[in-house]
Structure formats: C-alpha cells, structure tokens
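Dear support,

I submitted the protein below through the web form. The confirmation email said the job was done, but the results page showed an empty box. After a refresh the structure appeared. I'm attaching both so you can tell me whether what I see now is the final result or a partial one.
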Amino acid sequence: MVTDFEELVLLCDEELRHREYESCYYVRITRQWDCLREWLSQKEITEFNEDIGNSYCDEIFGTHLMPKRPPVKLRENLRAVRMLISYQKNGDFEFRCRSVEYIFSGSVGETALAYLDYCKNELVLAEKTLENKRLYLCSFCNYLNVKGLGFDDLSIEETESFFASMNYTLASRHNAARNIKLFLQFAYDNGKSIKDTSVFILPDNYKKDCKLPTTYEEDEIKELISSVERASAIGKRDYLILLLATEYGWRAKDITRFSFGDIDWDNNVIHFNQHKTDVPVDFPLLSTVGNAIIDYLKYARPETDVPEIIVSMENVNKGKPLSSPTIHSVVTKYMKRAGIKNWQNKKHGPHAMRHSLATNLLRKNVAMPVISTVMGHQRTETTSVYISVDHDKLKQCALPMPALHSPFYSKEGSHGKV
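What the results page shows now:
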C-alpha cells in the first residue's frame, strides 16, 4: 500500500487522465489535492492514510461522510479525498462516497461482524446485499447497546420498540425484520444466545406494491445513443453498451457477461442463458450491434484473455470484466450528456432502457408473446405490466357507459331535484 502522499497523488492523477474525465472536473479534483497538500504541510505530515484523510475532511468541511443532497462543491471536495483513500486501500476509485459509517461495538457488535463475515465468505453474498445487511444490523446493535441489552434480553416488546424507534417505512420495516431475524438465528446457532430470539421478530403483511416501470420515448433513446462521442476508445465501448441496453433490453449483468461464445456469426444470432432466470434467449445480430462489436474489438478493447467481450479501460482493472454498477454509470453519464428531460427524477439505468424497449414495442402493436420472448420472460403475465404505461392501449379498453333509466339518477328522481 502506497503511503507517501506525493506518490499516491501521482498514481491517482494518472488514473484520472486515463479515464478521460472532463478537463474542468479534472482541474477541480486536482485543486482539492493541492489544498490537502498544503494542509498536510502545515501539520508536517508526509504519510497519508484514511484516518488522516477523514481528519482533514472533518476539519475543513465539517464531515467526512457524504450527506444527503450535498452542494456540488462539497460533493466534489469529499469525492477528491475519497479517491485518494479508496485508491490507496483497493487500487481503484470507489463507486460512491460513503454516506454512512458502520460502527459495531460490544459483544453484540462482534457477533454482527462475525455474521457479516459468514455472509461474505461462506454464503458469498453480493456486496450490495452485504451493504443492506450492515445498514439494518448496525441500527439494531446500536439500539441494544444503548439500552444495555443482550440477545437473551430480547422479547416481542423490545423488538417492536426497536422498529417503532426507527420510524421505518413498510418496505424498510419488512427488509429490516428479515435481516435481523437471520442474524438472531445465526447468534443462536453459534452459541451466542441461550434461546432462539428470532421468534420475537413478528411476521408482517407487507406486500410489495406493483410499481409502474420507468420508460423513455423513442426520440429520447435516439438522443441518448447520439450523444456518444465514438472517436475515443471509451466512446466505442460505451456505444456498444448502450446499444445492448436499448436495442435488446439486456439487464446489466447480461451485458457484463456477454462473451465471444454467445455470438453465432455465421447465422447472425446471439444466444445465451439469462443470468437472472437462466432462461435461454436468442437475439438477431443486428447490423448496428454487429458493427459496434467489430469497431470496439478492432480499435478499443484492451488486450486480455478473458472471454467477456466488454472489459474495463481503467489502468487498475484494465482488461477485466465490468461490474453491473459500471453499466448503470455509463447509462447515467449519457442521460446527462443528452439532456434527457427530467431524467434525474426517474429511474435512469439499464433497466429503464429495458422497460422502454418493451413499452415502445407494445406501442407498435407487437404481440405480447413476442415481447415476452424478447424480454426473456417465462410467463406472458410478467410482461403485462407494460400495458399499464401505454395510455393509448388503455383507452381502447374503456367500455362505453350504458344508458341509465333509473329515476334515482335523473334530475328529478324519487327524492326530488338533485
């Protein structure tokens, strides 16, 4: 791990340049590093680590955690310091700056950390799932520590008191209860509690409401695609990613797993099993997609032996497969660049492109079974949710109001004038 500040800055500077950040953003980030350099000089500090970076942020900005809806300047300043910290620890810039700090203390906290290690190493849960568990377990452990409670002191009244103190929404309450219940079962199975206190987490009647999918018009999708500068290597890669998301409606994980073996060049077909459902799907190799693949392979893809077609361009992870959050970031980047109206207040990742494809196909009178096949849905009923966002089709379903002959509804009915 690089601890010398100047050496660390040089490495991060090189990474910034390689990622082709906009010049104005690059200047603002490096300017903040200059401010940090001056602060370190005043403190006569030459080494750098996370604690020093956090101390700088706390003293200069009042916090080292990203607040909700921060001003742009504060967000960029914290981001600049977190770039150094995350690169020093992991050799890469973190995807998002931390907004929450998880502190687990006491015997209950130690058990929570052991449970999280078990989830990571034994169950091999995704980082996003682990982050979700940390959030709820940290709140629960802090509650127990403040009240001086152990596992065997729990009761229905205490667990309900915890949920009431958190003021959760129905969905958050449901997720918290599920994660805490599994944690308490782990504590009992590993001898941390005499009795299985998970029984004190009461079941709920929460049912996830059917939410309307976020969609974009065809013209907006075209603007999104046109906003890509395809002269650069990153532009060629991003253009291919956007085509796979908009033309085929692929999920982020399917884009990252897209491999050479999935393409049948002789028959112009792409065939693979979806990651989410393991359902086999076939797509015609569209000329736009085929040309984009060839352009990317010939002029942009780094040399690597991995079977995945689309790989990282970053120095640290160069040639390695992309992660799903990167696909989301690519779509978001061009949403902003294309100036899509109100995109910040809507879902704006690859899944929104998937929803848009299905809805736009429906508007073109494509049959529902065909759309289900394109989406890779196992049941047509799953696809029917898109009917709810096609207002023109819904109007066609409206039945005429029959003539009413009841005197109750007349202007002068049995009850007199209305």
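Response: this is the final, complete result; the empty box was a page-load delay. The chain has 17 helices and five strands.
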